[in-house]
Q: What sequence folds into this?
């Protein structure tokens, strides 16, 4: 199946670095015309630099592909609409949205500031909504389209110092699942990837203890390009029956995640009191808690 995205137009946000760059390159290599969106911010979301997006464009051109740059931020409704408009202006249509742009403002929860919260929610959660919503009008008109959103195991499981990021990333899962339901009538699909990659974003993970060192060595082997084939597949017509799902590529493994459903129930005909929950329900429900949820050593890079 060569050129799985022939004739399609893709927007990849945050395509100037890391995972987004590799997705943009592979999508162009599979025949898509690509809008490389990136403001060229630091990991914490500060500053602007045109160079990363230009570098991605140069690589795509070297490979014989077609792309254009949009340097507008995903984190505002007006600028997000410009990103989608860039696809219409340059290529006359829009078929694929990859919501990948991201920043980090890690902070232990009791010290997290409102600014740290707002900045991360603005780029990840609001940005994913804005770009998706702007594209939805076109997807509805043409009765087709595919969304691929970057979530994270930090959201699916939780992670130290990342309440802002985790909330945004689990919020993106809810966004994707509801888009999948609302837009299926227009032949539009929406899926999430919880990626793994050694990038500038993960480059700051501490490697002090032997266990941390081993973990970091493992992550360093997970190059960002390992995430691109899954994004291409999910964006292609070969995934026409796949929607509302969450996947992970980890090196050469692919995971699909369970959908959150009740896993254990207890019934009491006279109803529950707080005391009865403590005495009767908890011992039974606790059998359903996962090992990770019980453990004090949850770490988002070990999802299973
Ligand atoms: P990265 O820092 O290498 O790249 C992120 C890009 O987003 C940067 O080029 C940056 O300039 C751009 N960006 C930031 N704010 C923007 C804005 N407002 N508008 C447009 N562009 C903006 O990060 P990465 O590691 O490649 O991560 C890509 C995505 O995958 C992120 O959403 C991240 O949260 C997610 N993710 C990554 C990992 C991992 O292992 N690297 C794990 C889980 C989730």
A:
């Amino acid at each position: 199946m060569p050129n799985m995205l022939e004739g399609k137009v893709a927007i990849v946000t945050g395509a100037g670095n890391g995972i987004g760059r590799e997705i943009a390159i592979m999508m162009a290599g599979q025949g898509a015309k690509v809008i490389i969106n990136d403001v060229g911010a630091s990991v914490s979301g500060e500053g602007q630099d045109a160079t990363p997006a230009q570098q991605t464009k140069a690589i795509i051109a070297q490979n014989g592909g077609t792309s254009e740059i949009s340097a507008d931020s995903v984190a505002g409704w007006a600028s997000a609409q410009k990103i989608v408009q860039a696809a219409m202006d340059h290529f006359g249509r829009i078929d694929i949205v990859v919501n990948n742009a991201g920043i980090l403002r890690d902070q232990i929860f009791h010290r997290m500031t409102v600014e740290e919260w707002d900045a991360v929610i603005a780029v990840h959660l609001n940005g994913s909504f804005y770009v998706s919503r702007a594209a939805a009008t076109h997807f509805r008109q043409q009765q087709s389209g595919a969304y691929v959103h970057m979530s994270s195991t930090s959201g699916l499981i939780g992670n130290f110092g990342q309440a802002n990021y985790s909330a945004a990333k689990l919020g993106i899962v809810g966004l994707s699942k509801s888009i999948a339901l609302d837009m299926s009538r227009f032949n539009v699909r929406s899926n999430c990837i919880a990626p793994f990659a050694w990038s500038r974003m993960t480059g700051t993970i501490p490697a002090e203890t032997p266990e941390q060192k081993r973990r970091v060595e493992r992550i360093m082997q997970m190059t960002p390009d390992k995430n691109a084939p899954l994004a291409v597949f999910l964006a292609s017509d070969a995934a026409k029956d796949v929607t509302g799902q969450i996947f992970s590529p980890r090196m050469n493994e692919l995971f699909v995640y369970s959908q959150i459903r009740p896993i254990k129930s207890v019934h009491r005909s006279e109803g529950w009191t707080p005391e009865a929950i403590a005495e009767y329900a908890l011992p039974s429900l606790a059998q359903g808690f996962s090992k990770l949820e019980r453990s004090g050593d949850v770490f988002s890079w070990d999802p299973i």
